[in-house]
Amino acid sequence: MELTGDSPRRRILLKDVALRASVSGSTASRALADDPRISLATRLSVKAAAAELQYVPNAAARSLRVRRTRTLGLLLPDLRDPVHGQVASAFEQEARQQGYSVMVVAGERDVVRERLALRIFAEHGTDGVAIVSSVLAPRELRERVDPARLILVWPDHRSLPRHDGPPIPGVIQTDDAGGVRAAVTHLVDSGYRRIAYVESGVRDSNSTRAEAVAATLRSRGIRAPVRRFFAAVDAWRAPAYLAEQIAADLPEALVCYDDQLALALMNALRDLGIRVPEDVGIVGFDGIPYAAMSNPRLTTVAVPSAEMGRAAAASLIRAVRDGALPEGVVLPVGVVVRESTRGGPPPGGD
Amino acid sequence: MELTGDSPRRRILLKDVALRASVSGSTASRALADDPRISLATRLSVKAAAAELQYVPNAAARSLRVRRTRTLGLLLPDLRDPVHGQVASAFEQEARQQGYSVMVVAGERDVVRERLALRIFAEHGTDGVAIVSSVLAPRELRERVDPARLILVWPDHRSLPRHDGPPIPGVIQTDDAGGVRAAVTHLVDSGYRRIAYVESGVRDSNSTRAEAVAATLRSRGIRAPVRRFFAAVDAWRAPAYLAEQIAADLPEALVCYDDQLALALMNALRDLGIRVPEDVGIVGFDGIPYAAMSNPRLTTVAVPSAEMGRAAAASLIRAVRDGALPEGVVLPVGVVVRESTRGGPPPGGD
DNA sequence: TTGTACGCGTTATCAT
DNA sequence: ATGATAACGCGTACAA
């Protein structure tokens, strides 16, 4: 069976290229890898042959040999919300620029799905994995994934040491507490006193923010306990009930778990005839683009989501290359004062 | 070298499992695959061994053999915007539920990057690929990717036959023109006459919408040519200049390329003292969640983004399984009337 | 500078 | 019902 049996577009193999360039398979392989031991002439002719035949190397075969896939695993809670979309986007972009592909899995804040994701990554032999705000404990993560090839993108998390210690290798953190502190300081400086926090779900990041609100108020000598409202995880879809609760005992300002919730709440409060910021000040968290376009524009604690994704990919690739975790990073988080709180700039800014 | 040489966590192989269960490699393989020829007893004992050893199969080796990767490629323009985030999310979710992993690449509306993506998919041997609104022509796509394993998620696109013909196999379309028609009809019925379209970039989907606006107005006997404003691709980031242009010759209503642009414009017009909908009506496109939370809430043409992603994954998997493209799909697109146009419901609805 | 031969871990064919 | 063996496509140690 010679050249005859080429049925509908058989896949081109390395040996086809080699044959065409009249060299051996190994030479072809080396030529394509720009091995300096191969003469420039043959290198060129092999590449020409590869181009003509539209040769595409088989990643499976290659990774079976070299034990690397040039693939990264990215596990995050959800691709829908702007923050994680931004993180994923930046991660993928950085990875692609460095020659890595990325396999994404949305864990949906579900333990089972997250474990499954890790298994999938293991099966596919991703060179490294990055995990964004998982519900699995860091400890379990490091058990299931080679810790030397694992980057954690973690908001200021309770189960990790506080950010004011040294950065933890392989961990990208954000100074959530610092951001909240700045926001609450802004509120207090603007004369707000009766400040409430609107919680969301039961995630750790929520507690961090709640505690930061309370701590800052305490440090400013405001003794009344901070009022807390509880929103379901997806409350932003149907915030009417929550808005009513809040309206029934309206504080002077609301610090919300995130921008989605803040925007939804602002929207629902409007239906109740409550004006922002005249009747109540509102502060969000995340700094999504829509926070800058709402009416009134939302004062928020802005997190560098794109930088988180980029840094995660960059760190992960370095970890893969060096075989050791790079320095951890703590990214700054700051308040952006807009129109939903008093003391901000006059309308028209931003 | 017996059991001694197990240096830092050697990876567990199938033969380790086989050894532990005292069967051959082939039996182990079959047992794990639930091959009925293997006795139930050995099947169980093999699985037990695999579990104890935490065996994880090597996908590279497997796909080298079986020529399938249980991996899907997803190429889309951008993971940042809500629409594609939604599509990606639904795609990944459906794929995962059916046992497939997904490799995403953002093409960023760049020809080179899109071609690179296709090559990456080819190298990794994805079982199929889905392409969302690419800038590459369908023709080129079908040249570079096996057309029997290629799903196109295509808004009502000029280079494809119109949606009112039969659906095209392997293509998920949306009835963009129909949606725009409904929106413009709503405007005309509400008394709007001088209607302008705000374009974005030079993409085909833009033309489809622009033409649909014009055609609908014509069919309603409005003879004045529709005024067109031109926004750069990323105009929503800095819409002030565009807003000034529009304000200088204010039409009665604006139909915008998409919601982001509409929201940004509404925001910028506000700075110019122009009220919506009193001074000008605004219609968006996409139906992103924030359109429902703006002030005033945005009237928009809603596209079923999640369903697009889900359908794409489902179709692709069927294509992979059956070796042939499933029926095409045309998804409905409808106008959602809110507060940014007159004739909508009174404030408080939605 | 280039070619030969082997092995990566798995599944499938063929024998038993 | 199970085992031995070959093959998937590539990279590389070794030989020439």
Structure description:
The structure is a homodimer. Chain A has about 350 residues and is of the alpha/beta class. Chain A has 12 helices and 12 strands. Chain A folds into 3 domains: about 15-55, no CATH class; about 70-175 and about 305-330, 3-Layer(aba) Sandwich (Rossmann fold); about 175-305, Rossmann fold (3-Layer(aba) Sandwich). Helices cover about 40% and strands about 15% of the residues of chain A. A 6-stranded parallel sheet of chain A has the order 2-1-3-4-5-11, with helices on both faces. In chain A, helix 2 (about 25-30) crosses helix 3. The termini of chain A are far apart. At the A-B interface, helix 4, helix 5, strand 2, helix 6 and helix 11 of A face helix 4, helix 5, strand 2, helix 6 and helix 11 of B. The structure holds a DNA duplex (16 and 16 nucleotides).
